[in-house]
Design goal:
The protein is built from nine helices and 13 strands. It is an alpha+beta fold. It folds into two domains: 3-132, Gcn5-related N-acetyltransferase (GNAT) (Aminopeptidase, 3-Layer(aba) Sandwich); 138-282, Aminopeptidase (3-Layer(aba) Sandwich).
């Protein structure tokens, strides 16, 4: 049966998230996670539904993509069709043709799992490797340990503090309490947790949001940040450890994250928190 490209809208978000949950596995390469859609929901359900693309065959979703900005498609495919030629060729054609409503003209990027046929086909078509990213993972079968600082779970009453730390950790962040509430209202957040770390003076100094994909599956850190005035004091390691402990409580098999290899501070922080770096991965880039 023909492969159908679709934009699910608000009504199809749960189906896309459900497919992504099923595809998460500790043996799989780094790939789009339901938490990526959950974090995007800070922009609202309508914007998220518009940013998602699905490829379906015979009524079954076999690939899910997220337009993380106008020029970047983050996409993954079901494990049993990762090397399916018909699907890969259709996806490669869809992302290459601006008329199909996925990516526009000019310089654009595709993030696809290492070893997927669609990544190979894009390379053959002249898409070039972009900057390297480092995936990191920590096994959660063993207890995580105490982060060593006070940790609070964020609820509506802490949304302002959570948003403030986010903006102080990322220079271009537009995160607000309203966006936290939009994110928390999504169905994905039922399997997520926001945490704040506090210093000895009682100031919120670091934050993390972690996303479970269900028991026995890897959970995602997206995002983690330390207030710019409190860096270099170990709070990044502490909040990462706290996030790992929260995911273990939710039944996750591991905690994963992917960060730019050039961000050596982030790689060092995650490594110090017990995460092990894997082989670097690269998006595929089509130049204008």
């Amino acid at each position: 049966m023909a492969i159908v490209l679709g934009t699910p809208g608000v009504g199809g978000l749960d189906a896309a998230v459900g497919a992504l949950r099923e595809w998460q596995d500790d043996g799989a390469p780094m790939q789009l996670h339901p938490g990526d859609l959950g974090w995007f929901l800070r922009f609202g359900a309508e914007a998220t539904g518009t940013a998602v693309r699905t490829w379906s065959r015979d009524g079954r979703i076999v690939a899910v993509g997220l337009l993380d900005g106008a020029a970047l498609l983050r996409v993954t495919v079901a494990p049993d069709v990762r090397r399916d030629e018909e699907l890969a060729r259709r996806m490669a054609e869809d992302v290459a043709d601006p008329g199909r409503g996925v990516l526009g003209e000019g310089q654009v990027y595709v993030e696809a799992p290492t070893g997927s046929l669609v990544q190979d086909l894009l390379t053959e078509a002249g898409w070039r490797p972009d900057e390297p990213w480092t995936p990191l993972r920590r096994d959660l079968r063993e207890p995580v340990g105490d982060p060593g600082v006070r940790i609070e779970v964020v609820g509506p009453e802490r949304a302002e503090a959570r948003a403030a730390v986010q903006r102080a950790a990322f220079d271009r962040s537009t995160f607000t309490p309203e966006r936290w509430r939009a994110m928390a209202a999504g169905s994905s957040y039922a399997d997520a947790r926001c945490l704040l770390a506090y210093d000895d003076r009682g100031d919120a100094v670091a934050a993390v949001t972690v996303w479970s994909a269900g028991p026995g599956r890897p959970g995602l850190i997206e995002p983690m940040g330390v207030h710019r005035d409190h860096r270099g004091l170990g709070f990044g390691v502490a909040i990462t450890v706290a996030g790992a402990a929260a995911l273990r409580e939710m039944g996750s098999s591991s905690v994963i994250v992917c960060t730019r290899s050039a961000n050596v501070g982030a790689v060092a922080t995650y490594t110090s928190a017990g995460m092990r770096p894997g082989p670097e991965v690269r998006d595929r880039r089509r130049d204008a």
